[in-house]
Amino acid sequence: MSATLQLRSKGSFTIPASLRQKYSLEEGAVFTLVDLGDGSFYLTPNRSNVPEFVAEMTALRKEAGITIEELLEGLTEQRQRLYAERQRAIESME
Asked: Which terminus of the chain has a lower count of CB atoms within 10 Å, N or C?
């Protein structure tokens, strides 16, 4: 599908409603515009991966039978273990 867009005085243009609906684009959506160097541009929406990541982590947590409370309880221990590993790596480089 192609669409003709008209650049307005402040540099804005409207993406056709059919494309906004198709790709679930809402007001305030952020895009990346790449100048291909030959007068062509590539426009793509910036999408957050956070919701997908949260859903995946929730599924893994539930599959493992771990509650959020249990996950948080182990956080301090994991941080201490990681810190100790980093310290050993630094000391071994000296």
From this structure: C
Whether residues 32 and 56 share a domain: the answer is: no
Who contacts 44 (Cβ-Cβ below 8 Å, separation ≥6)? 31, 32, 34
Q: Residue 39 maps to which CATH number?
A: 2.10.260.10
DSSP label of 46: -
- In this structure, what token pair is assigned to residue 48? 């957050």
Start-to-end CA distance of the chain, whole Å, equals 60
Token pair in block for residue 19? 């494309």
pTM over 0.70: no
**Per-residue confidence (pLDDT) for residue 40, from 0 to 100:** 92
Whether 41 contacts 35, CB under 8 Å: yes
| Domain limits for position 75 | 50-93
